[in-house]
C-alpha cells in the first residue's frame, strides 16, 4: 500500500515540474545566464570611438542570440551601432515558446527600444523591462556578445 502512495507522489511531482518549468520563461530571475548557443552576423563599416572605456567599436548592425534561464530560453537581438551608441534595436522572441513566456518576451521586445536607443553600448545593462526580468538576462547576454564582436583593434 505504501508503494502506491510513493508512486503517486513521485508522479505528481514529475507532472508538476513538467507544467511549471516551461512557464518560467522571462518571469523568473534565477541569476543564471547560458551562452552556449550563438547565432551572429554583422555588417561593419568604419570604427568609432566608444564613450567610456577606450574600446573602439565598428559601426554597423549586429545580430546575436541572447540565451538565458534554465530551459534555456533565447531572443534574437539585432542592434545597430554608430559611434558606440545604439541607434536601433529589434528583439525577436523565441518562436517555439509557451504562451506565458512568449507574452513576456513580446512585452520586452516592444519596450526595449525606448530603453536602449541612444545609450552607449559600454554603459548599457538592462534590468527588468515591461515586467520581464529573465528577458533582461538574455538581452544582457546578447550585449556582451555584440560588444565582443563589434570591438575593433585599437
UniProtKB/TrEMBL annotation:
Q: What is this protein called?
A: FMN-binding domain-containing protein
- Reading the lineage from the top rank, the first entry is Bacteria
A single Gene Ontology molecular function, please? FMN binding
Q: Which InterPro entries match?
A: FMN-bd
Originating organism: Rhodococcus rhodochrous J45
Q: What UniProt keywords are attached to this protein's entry?
A: Signal
Q: What is the lineage of its organism?
A: Bacteria, Bacillati, Actinomycetota, Actinomycetes, Mycobacteriales
Signal sequence span is 1-24
Bias-annotated ranges (Low complexity) = 27-60
Domain FMN-binding residue range list:
67-150
Task: Cite a GO CC annotation.
Answer: membrane
Question: What are the start and end residues of every segment in region (Disordered)?
Answer: 26-60
